[in-house]
Write a structure and sequence with these properties.
The protein is about 40% helix and about 30% strand. The protein has a five-stranded antiparallel beta sheet with strand order 3-2-1-4-5. The longest helix has 30 residues.
C-alpha cells in the first residue's frame, strides 16, 4: 500500500477463481461496541464480500486474512455511495420545491432522481471497481 493509512477488516478466504480471491468479512456498525446494542435497533453487523486480485500464490480457501484499503480510496467510495447521491437528492428537492411549491411532489421526484444515478453507477461498476485497490495478507490466527 502507499504511505497513507489503511482501513482493514479481518476475513476468511471464501473462494479462489482464476486471478480473484473472494474474501468474506463481517462489517460492524460504528456503535457495535456499545453496551446497549442488545436493545438498540440501529446497531448491527452484516456479512460482506470483496474480490481481490491475487497478487501472489499461497492462499487457500479457509485462510484467515486481513483485507486492506487505503483510507483515501475509502473516502472516494463514501463519496460515490453517499455524498453524491445526497447532493443530487437535496438539489432536486429544494430546486423543485422552489419552482413548483409542491413539497410532496418535489420529494417524490427527488427520490426518483437517484434511480438514474445508481443506474449509471451500476453501468460503470467495472470501471469504478478498478479505482479501488484492495490488498490482503494472511493473519497469524
Amino acid at each position: 500500500m502507499g504511505n497513507g493509512s489503511a482501513v482493514s477488516h479481518e476475513g476468511v478466504v471464501e473462494r479462489i477463481t482464476g486471478d480473484l480471491i473472494r474474501v468474506r468479512f463481517v462489517a460492524h456498525s460504528a456503535c457495535a461496541a456499545c453496551h446497549a446494542k442488545g436493545v438498540c435497533a440501529v446497531s448491527g453487523s452484516e456479512e460482506k464480500f470483496v474480490d481481490v486480485l491475487k497478487g501472489s500464490s499461497g492462499y487457500a480457501v479457509g485462510d484467515r486474512v486481513e483485507v486492506m484499503l487505503e483510507e483515501k480510496q475509502g473516502f472516494r467510495a463514501l463519496a460515490y455511495g453517499y455524498v453524491f447521491p445526497l447532493v443530487i437528492l437535496l438539489a432536486v428537492l429544494f430546486g423543485l420545491s422552489e419552482l413548483t411549491g409542491r413539497e410532496g411532489l418535489s420529494a417524490m421526484i427527488a427520490i426518483g432522481s437517484l434511480v438514474p444515478y445508481y443506474f449509471i453507477v451500476w453501468l460503470y461498476r467495472k470501471r469504478l471497481a478498478a479505482q479501488f485497490d484492495f490488498r490482503i495478507r494472511k493473519t497469524n490466527n
